[in-house]
Design a protein that fits this description.
842 residues; alpha+beta; ten-stranded mixed sheet; six-stranded mixed beta barrel; 27 helices
Length: 842
């Protein structure tokens, strides 16, 4: 039968095009997910392991606090172990975060130490020389381009305590990836740059690599006695890679769930397509039965065609999916480890798509085996699908589907609720899969039960509507399956959109709570900002407004250990409404005492409550205020805050006013503004004053939202494939409807029905299926997305904010409706080509 099946495919390859497309798309998603997971893991391993590859042994502080260790702690371990004769080279490892100022920009940078011994250097130079002193550095090419410097240029590095150092770029390295540090730039310096700082680790290179086990054991024993650790470099690489690989697990799991759901959609499309094929080949199959073919032969023929098509689709899908998954990683700049894929996992995923295709074909092949030989004589297209499966068997099947599908849906909803309220993503994912399975089983039956009512509504559209209603009602079960496929695609888009909108809103709300000041430009030593910066502060277009803040050091405050405020901030009256709208701060005087903002953690430390008095000393003058708790006092440093009018009402204001300095400017983002754009504008402004430092929540928000955007880009690409599969199923449903109604349409043509009316009936049928699928998809997808994002991040913040993606929905609905109409184009064209006499000669 393989030879016969191949001959059938060669004779009419277009008949299996829809099956091939569904297999290709599902195999693409499965292969793409496998390649994405493996390539991202390999990339993270490469980034993490690169600095450690030349290292044989690492002396590490372990659980000890580096600040509590003396600068020579690692060298002391090495000396006590008495392994000097086996050591070729050592290199202390330092790292520090600074603000880097170049000729074109400024930004945060990590400064790493680079070994003086070539055997412990993990990168080479693209140009220039290695740093030979504390005032020379090597930078990566993207850092050089970002800061606008080259070999021989200078960069100003400012530490958190305000110390500035001007260094010369001695070389540009050949590193092609950015270390995952959350900073803008990467800079590499000679160990002397770090002065008397305590190293974080000591890298050890041995003369003979075969001594690694023995040397590590001795070093580990000595290190344990000193409260630190020593491990092999390869073991540290393994631990670091495993930790970093865990960062992609959530994204991989979500992509895998999408891939499985897409496979379910593909199976529904394949089932619909095979029913169409069986209807088209009624006479051929009946002729085979007439000349002696047994039912087993017909079954083998159909399954052989499915197997050949599945294998071809698997190969195409594997190539396109693997290439697409890797291309996506390259486009995101995350393919540092090169192409990677687990061959067994990839083979298993692709064989799953083949098995799903053959299994789906097997579930429909019984319709082909039931075609009687007598139909070879009249050639009438057999009505396929479960709609003709009359009697107790069909009723029993519907009961089974509903009986199993409804509990799955209920269980899925319960698990989603439990996962979202308990903030447990794995439970929510299991709930999503259970809900999907329940919808696959029960939704077609439920929609079929509603078809008579839907048909009555469509009948109000005249003759085209009555024709569409007749087709949908006669094939209610098949229409239900098509609606389910469309609903799956829409629900996934809706889920992702609502998750993205709610996730973004929650992140913004959480950052606004933790960082009431979206961005702050300030001087660490409270010296005045330059006039140039203050004049240009109003040019920040992505901020609601800029507010200059005058500050003065607090001479004395009640002792609160690390939480003692050091600064009095005097903010404009307008800023109070902008930054403390949710604090309930009523600026003014209470009993002759200003109501000032104080951090709640500090209030708890010194034992005062809301409304209690707090006395601080400013410019040698005691100032008593009533405390009002606010997170605002932590932006960018712990302070006590009053307004201009409150200060002006004080009897000693004249002694304080002249000593205030405008050392800060606060910015608040406008709603809906990209925080990354605000960060860029503030950083550009900061370049005008080397004393200025940028603070606030913009840096953290950029990192979080960048991860979210990466998730969205990948997921939307995968969902586009799912929707394509769903619309292919819609086109199949309409094509089968046209085939089965050939006699009906030819009779209508003979009675004078115009082609436009027939074309309109197909379009109405397509719109009805699309609209119902879209409504169901939105009803399922929107709460599904909310439950998923709440399960993922709801437990991380008390600022969970629900937001529905109305903008995306308003665009999605017309796009889907247009796509549904396009899916009806070819079936409608075929219907209008049916001649009036065709029903008489069929």
């Amino acid at each position: 039968m393989i030879r016969v099946a191949w001959a059938q495919i060669r004779h009419s390859p277009s008949r299996l095009l829809a099956v091939l497309l569904a297999v290709v798309l599902s195999a693409m998603m499965l292969a793409g997910t496998v390649v994405f997971q493996a390539t991202s893991t390999a990339s993270m391993a490469t980034v993490t392991a690169a600095p450690l590859r030349p290292v044989d042994v690492i002396i590490d502080p372990g659980d000890a606090d580096v600040k509590s260790l003396k600068p020579s702690w690692a060298e002391d371990v090495l000396a006590k172990a008495n392994v000097g004769g086996k050591v070729r080279a050592t290199a202390p490892y330092y790292a520090a975060t600074v603000t880097a100022y170049g000729s074109a920009a400024r930004g945060t940078a990590n400064v790493y130490s680079v070994s003086r011994d070539p055997s412990l250097r993990w990168f080479g130079l693209e140009s220039g020389d290695w740093p030979a002193s504390a005032d020379q550095v090597v930078v990566s090419r993207d850092t050089a381009d970002g800061l606008g410097v080259n070999v021989g240029g200078t960069v100003t590095l400012k530490s958190s305590d305000g110390t500035k150092r001007v260094v010369t770029v001695s070389g540009i390295n050949d590193v092609r990836f950015k270390p995952m540090t959350g900073t803008d730039y990467a800079i590499y310096a000679d160990p002397s740059y770090f002065g008397e700082a305590t190293p974080g680790e000591l890298f050890v290179k041995l003369d003979d690599p075969s001594d690694i086990d023995a040397v590590t054991e001795r070093l580990a024993a000595t290190a344990r006695a000193d409260g630190v650790t020593a491990v092999e470099g390869s073991e540290m690489i393994r631990q670091a890679s495993a930790m970093m690989a865990g960062g992609s697990t959530q994204l991989t799991v979500i992509m895998a769930v999408f891939a499985v759901i897409a496979l379910l959609c593909a199976m529904m499309v394949i089932s619909s397509t095979y029913r169409t094929l069986i209807a088209q080949r009624t006479r051929d199959i009946a002729m085979l039965r007439l000349i002696g073919a047994k039912r087993a032969n017909i079954r083998s023929l159909v399954l052989s065609e499915a197997l050949i098509t599945a294998l071809a689709g698997m190969i195409i899908g594997a190539l396109v999916g693997a290439g697409g998954g890797y291309a996506a990683m390259v486009a995101m700049g995350q393919a540092f480890g090169g192409f990677a894929a687990n061959p067994f996992l990839l083979a298993g995923a692709l064989l799953l798509s083949v098995a799903a295709t053959v299994l789906t074909a097997w579930t429909t092949v019984r319709h082909a085996t039931r075609i009687p030989p007598i139909q070879a004589l009249d050639g009438a297209a057999q009505t396929s699908g479960d709609d003709t499966d009359t009697g107790g068997r069909a009723h029993h099947g519907r009961i089974l589907r509903m009986g199993f599908g409804a509990p799955c849906m209920i269980a899925g909803i319960a698990l989603l609720w439990a996962g979202s309220t308990g903030f447990h993503m794995p439970i929510a994912l299991v709930g999503g899969l259970a809900l999907a399975l329940g919808l696959v089983l029960a939704l077609p039956v439920f929609v079929a039960m509603l078809m008579p009512a839907i048909g009555m509504i469509l009948s109000a559209c005249g003759l085209p509507g009555k024709l569409a209603a007749s087709s949908l009602t006669a094939n209610a079960r098949r229409a239900g399956g098509t609606i389910t496929a469309v609903a799956f695609g829409i629900s996934l888009i809706a889920a992702l959109s609502s998750a993205a909108a709610t996730g973004t809103a929650t992140i913004d709300a959480d950052l606004d709570y933790r960082y009431p000041v979206s961005a702050a430009l300030y001087t660490p030593d409270n010296s005045p900002l330059s006039d140039k910066v203050l004049q240009r502060a109003s040019e920040i277009t992505d901020a609601r407004a800029s507010y200059p803040v005058r500050t003065i050091a607090i001479d004395h405050a009640p002792e609160g250990a690390k939480t003692t405020p050091k600064v009095l901030d005097v903010i404009p009256d307008k800023a109070a409404g902008t930054f403390t709208a949710d604090d309930g701060w009523h600026t003014g005087i209470s009993g002759g005492t200003p109501v000032a903002l104080v951090h709640p953690r500090y209030m708890s430390t010194i034992g005062i409550k809301e409304g209690d008095q707090l006395t601080i000393t400013i410019a040698g003058t005691p100032l008593t205020v009533r405390a009002h708790a606010s997170q605002l006092t932590e932006s960018p440093e712990l302070a006590v805050i009053i307004t201009d009018s409150q200060l002006g009402s004080l009897p000693n204001a004249a002694a304080i006013q002249p000593k205030l300095k405008t050392s800060m400017v606060w910015f608040k983002t406008r709603p809906g503004i990209d925080r990354a754009k605000l960060a860029g504008q503030v950083n550009h402004l900061a370049a005008a004053d080397p004393n200025a430092t940028v603070g606030g929540g913009i840096a953290e928000s950029n990192d979080i939202l960048n991860v979210l955007n990466m998730l969205l880009m990948l997921s939307y690409a995968m969902l586009a494939i799912t929707v394509t599969i769903s619309l292919t199923g819609l086109a199949n449903q309409l094509a089968l409807s046209v085939i089965e109604r050939t006699n009906e349409i030819s009779m209508l043509r003979a009675l004078g029905t115009r082609r436009g009316a027939i074309r309109m009936s197909i379009a109405i049928e397509a719109l009805a299926l699309t609209v119902i699928g879209t409504v169901i998809g939105l009803l399922v997808g929107l709460p599904l997305g909310l439950a998923g994002v709440k399960a993922q991040i709801g437990g991380m913040t008390g600022q969970f904010t629900t937001r529905l993606p109305w903008d995306q929905i308003s665009v999605l609905i017309p796009v889907i409706l247009i796509a549904g109409l396009l899916a009806s184009t070819i079936p409608a064209r075929n219907a209008t080509r049916i001649q009036a006499a065709q029903g008489l000669t069929s």
